[in-house]
Specification:
- By secondary structure, the chain is of the alpha/beta class.
- It has 2 domains: about 120 residues, Rossmann fold (3-Layer(aba) Sandwich); about 160 residues, Dihydrodipicolinate Reductase, domain 2, CATH 3.30.360.10.
- Helix content is about 30%, strand content about 25%.
- It has 12 helices and 14 strands.
- Strands 3-2-1-4-5-7-6 form a 7-stranded parallel beta sheet, with helices on both faces.
- It is globular and about 60 Å long.
- The two termini are about 35 Å apart.
């Protein structure tokens, strides 16, 4: 059994992670850490775990959370992960960080966008960006995983086959994304209250949303040349789910068949990527509660532009599910373990 601790277990991503790990046949949860509910049973904070996970939560600084575990999941706000990663690394533990602190390879870029100091360059070099469809081989050997952000997951997976095969104009990429309210976390924030979001739709974080440099970093690596994007996130009045519509322009003489074949070939052996049939486009409900990313393509002959639409559950493939997938890869397990779910419907 893999002994696992979750620090930040009482946030939305944290509790989703607990739910998945509890149902994983090779995992034993040995510790749940929290900033706000130390001393309380987990099932008191989330009553749907009553009689299932009644473990008493510890303060996230309790050393037992790291000492008792083989793998430590960090589901913490940005700027908080570093001391736990350092402590775990010193004694040979594996870490999967669901936060932003290890995603950006440049400390100065991190400081610019997050307005705080992040990990040292030396420690960043040990971290692998945890997008299995791109970095699976590196993940197998890693001890520190930087779990991708939810928006970047939709954008990178939508564009990876095109950039890897140099099929599009990298100077023309527009990403229009929409997320359910759970992406804002569980904290009591006025902008996330029901009466503020219900019946409303709004863009936010523009022109400098913090996921922009993460998206550009990974797209640049795929394209092997500098990529800048126009990224606009929106908040939609539903609990969970995320969709990105990406607009780009194919290179001259590239055909629709080449584009479709690029996606089929790039994702041919990927258990959680579903390329939809021509004329069918993703719904967030089709991936609700699952680790799938559904992708649909639309070639507009009239304008010469290409639309790529991708949908995920922001708390699963966009956070906790991807973290479990990374753990499975790190330990040489079947990637489906703990994740083989069909979406709930309706």
């Amino acid at each position: 059994m893999i002994k696992a601790s979750v620090l930040g277990a009482t946030g939305y991503a944290g509790q989703e992670l607990v739910r998945m790990l509890y149902q994983h046949e090779y995992v034993e949860i040995v510790g749940l850490g929290t900033q706000s509910y130390a001393g309380k049973p987990f099932s008191e904070i989330y009553p749907h775990f009553n009689g299932v996970v009644d473990t008493e939560c510890l303060n996230i600084d309790d050393p037992a959370l790291i000492n008792a575990a083989e793998v430590i999941f960090l589901a913490l706000p940005h700027g908080l992960s570093l001391p736990y990663v350092e402590a775990a690394s010193k004694i040979g533990k594996k870490v999967i960080d669901l936060g932003a602190d290890f995603r950006l390879k440049s400390p100065s870029v991190y400081t610019k966008w997050y307005k705080t100091t992040g990990p040292s360059l030396e420690l960043l070099k040990q971290a692998v960006y945890g997008l299995p469809e791109v970095y699976r081989q590196d993940i197998k050997e890693a001890n520190i995983i930087a779990n991708p952000g939810c928006y970047p997951t939709t954008a990178i997976l939508a564009l990876a086959p095109l950039l890897k095969n140099k099929l599009i104009d990298t100077n023309y990429i527009i990403i229009d994304s929409k997320s359910g309210v759970s992406g804002a976390g569980r904290s009591l924030v006025v902008n996330s209250l029901f009466s503020e979001v219900d019946g409303d739709l709004k863009a936010y974080g523009i022109p400098q949303h913090r996921h922009t440099p993460e998206i550009e970093q990974e797209l640049t690596l795929l394209a092997e040349n500098d990529v800048m994007v126009t990224f606009t996130p929106h908040l939609i009045p539903m609990i969970r789910g995320m969709m990105s519509t990406v607009y780009t322009r194919p290179n001259q003489n590239v055909t629709q068949i080449e584009i479709e074949e690029a996606y089929q070939n790039f994702y041919s052996n990927e258990p959680f990527i579903r390329i939809l049939p021509q004329g069918q486009y993703p719904h967030t409900k089709w991936v609700l509660g699952t680790n799938y990313c559904d992708i649909g393509l639309s070639w507009d002959e009239r304008t010469g532009r290409l639309r790529i639409i991708s949908a995920i559950d922001n708390l699963v493939k966009g956070a906790s599910g991807q973290a479990v997938q990374n753990m499975n890869i790190m330990y040489g397990l079947n990637e489906n373990l703990g994740l083989a779910r069909i979406a709930m419907y309706p």
